[in-house]
Specification:
alpha+beta, two-stranded antiparallel ribbon, 14% strand
């Protein structure tokens, strides 16, 4: 249980999760009151089921082993989503 990774590949959620899994993760996040954060989701290698094993209200950003260019791309995407959440919430307060 550490953030030490030998290799990291950035993928779109739709490339590794089914639409049903994505929807269930969204429902879970909504029920947890998580507007923005980080989830650790594992897939069981034998039965294929997913498990959410950790929820953090502050995301720690991309893994350290992600190549530099992809790390910057990931940070820009995280920043854009965070900005959208903040400004969307500000509109309703």
């Amino acid at each position: 249980f550490s953030n030490a990774n030998r290799r990291v590949v950035m993928r779109e959620a739709q490339d590794v999760l089914t639409e049903d899994e994505i929807q269930r993760i969204q429902i879970f996040s909504h029920e947890m009151g998580l507007d923005f954060g980080g989830l650790d989701v594992l897939r069981h290698h034998e039965d294929g089921r997913i498990y959410i094993v950790d929820v953090n209200k502050t995301d720690m950003g991309p893994p350290t082993a992600l190549p530099g260019g992809e790390k910057m791309c990931a940070m820009r995407r995280l920043a854009a989503v965070f900005s959208d959440v903040v400004f969307e919430r500000a509109r309703y307060t």
